[in-house]
Amino acid sequence: MAVLVAARSATSGLRGVLRRGRLTLLAWAVVLAYVTVFVLAMVHTTYDTWGALLVAPALMAIGTPILARVAGANPERGVFKLLMVAMAAKLACAFPRYLMAFVLYGGAADAKMYHQKGSELARYLTTADFSAGLHYDLGMKVAGTGFVIIVTGVVYAVTGPTLVGGFLVFSWMGFWGLLFFWRALQIAFPEADSRRYAKLVFFLPSLLFWPSSIGKDAWMMFCLGLTTYGVARLLDRRFGAFACIALGSLGTAMVRPHVTVLAGAGLSVAYLLRKRPQQVSALGPLRTVLTAAVLGVGVMLMLQQVSTFFGTAGTGGDAVNQVLSETSRRTSQGDSVINAATADEPAPAFSLNPVKLPMSVVSVLFRPFPFEASNIQNLIQSVECFALLVMFVRAWPQLARIPKLFVQRSYVAFTVVYTLLFCWAFSTINNMGILSRERVQVLPLVLVLLAIPKPAADRPARRGRRRPPRWRAQPGQWGAARPPGPELPAAVGAPGPSRTQGGSTS
After folding, report:
1. What's the rounded Cα separation, in Å, for the pair 6 and 14?
2. Quick check: 203 and 83 in contact, CB under 8 A?
């Protein structure tokens, strides 16, 4: 027996040595391959390309300890591995996004302009005398495109002007936005299926691909995620909520202020439906009124910002129609137009009648349909949209709970209000390609609805624990050596120690 135990121990130790040896060998192979690729890239490409080989490990090194801290505070198992895979996948998707912009479309993308102007700004920032103040002319207003140029210039001032590296940084930025969405769900909707939501929000192809380029999409994803994280903290009465909401809203307002208004409207409704605490302090009602007033003022300021951004007069219904009509006209170009304008119309007709809101929801969230695809990109997008539609149909029992959860869970109210307003406003977009890219601003909140837990009646009944056997063999009863110690009492119904199995006495 002792020999067998020793042999097993030796075998286990040998396996451990071999396993560690294979891991060490694999690590050395990865390092050698990285150095080889790095040297070849330096010889045959410019810093635009090989700079990414410096940026990618740096981003992973910065993100890993943060994810370890997030995973350490999470009760679910395997969270760190899931987050690391999600971050690596998000960074990897920057490469096909770059190929699409600069190989498939030959550089006819906004990222090229951001790269050029961001490189010029980075050169100025790295050589400027800050004590004399900053005097740099963007050649355009700061809000909108100008702000993304500033962000790109600041990024390049740190990493150097590397185009592929810039794609990696913006994609990494989008990943943290998705992480904020995931944490918001865990804080404000703890009974939701957090693991399913994590798999959807981190690995949905649209969310991996589109916000992985130098441009507005990745920045908006980061800031919308930060805003939503602040909303969740506010609804759960946690510290730091207003700081997150203010920073996130400022970031979205500098690029797309109309989206900030939609988020502000959703937050206002959710705050009014927020569950009251069991013990209300004397200052509780006053704090609620002040917070509602601050939110109202914030929404009004954002409406003014929208009016300035689009160059409209006022913030009334005419101004909204003017903005949406201009959006419909600008997006009615290219091969992927949904509703083409007739020859005698300046822009395609659109309707904002609330009766057509269900059609707007279907159009914004689930188009293009497979039979509407005009090229391979639209076909791939249509497959994802169809899969998403099937998931929503299958989740009908959970979706039927939305009216009840709308009142009970204010985070669901925030999600529903923002989603409906977004679909209503963005249904005026007439180009499927633009629509596919723009809807990533609503998908993380739409996926919350797929994480609603099933009704209790539909859950499979939990198997009860097996009843322990009524009779267990006592140690030593079947011939094995009895451990030293006091003699154990016989179980009820067990044969006496002086009886054999056959029942005869010795």
Report:
1. 12
2. no
